[in-house]
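For consistency, the fold was encoded as tokens, as this record shows:
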Amino acid sequence: MTWSDALFLVGAPRSGTSLLQQVLREQPGFASVPRESDVIWEPYIHPENNGWKGEGFSGAEVSAEISAALHQRFSELAVSAETWRRWSSAGLMKNPGMARVLRLGYRFGKPVLALLKFRKGKSGSDLRLIDKSVHMGLWLSFVHTVFPGCRFIHIVRDPLTAIPSIIHGWQQPERFNTYLLPLDFDGEDFQWKFPLPPGWEAVVKAPVEDRAAFQWIAIQEAILRSAGELGMPYYRIRLEDLAATPRETLEALFAFAAIDWNPIAERYARELPKVNARESKGNANRQWLDKISPERQERIEVLRTIFGYSE
């Protein structure tokens, strides 16, 4: 099937994309894949495809065959909002065994999902796709070409709390691993975490603070650049506004996304879920600024101004 009017959530890591996805994927009429969709896009955007210069589609053009294959893969793996609500209310999404079930779904696709009746409810042709990936900001033009009628929601978080959270992620040995880089780093291969923007070579041996700042800046600048160049339907919200005034923030977001207000939206307007929550430490978050380059500090401040965080 072909998905029309798809909705994509983009942003830097640790900035609220998972929270927003949980709210939106349960809205009536939507479907989304069981986990982040990186495994679907990866064959086309893997950095190995373009000589490890960073993530992104490196082909001369996006063929009709590529677009059809991606639409088909989403059709095989998409889970209806009704199913998300049913499984979430039963507490199954917090069950460790559920991750193994979802991995089977990704491996065997439609047969496993059909067996589990994930698609119970509306037919696929009646559903809108909603998808999110913190990598996607680096290759939005590719997404926009594959899904020409799509809309993008960009969620941001103050970098003074977002970047320390990325730093913390880099310090977790078993989490957020993405690419094993093809280079010798002190006698060992280097395990990269989170997205791999072009220019990563300049920070791979830099302090983790500088590496995390580089990633945050690269993703935000890529999203803003694509939004301007593509003229795509684009809407930005701040995580802090969603937390402080969920009803007003969601109402405005729903108007952009053409989602009718409904009892499920009302429930989330009263109480947001807690997803990957990590409390910030106030002014202590500024300590990492001393470990990054002045040029990166300046670019962070420019982006803070654009996003409305400047004091």
The CA atoms of residues 156 and 238 lie 5 Å apart. The longest helix spans residues 208-230. The mean pLDDT is 86. Strands lie at 7-10, 30-32, 79-80, 128-132, 151-156, 177-185, 188-193, 234-238.
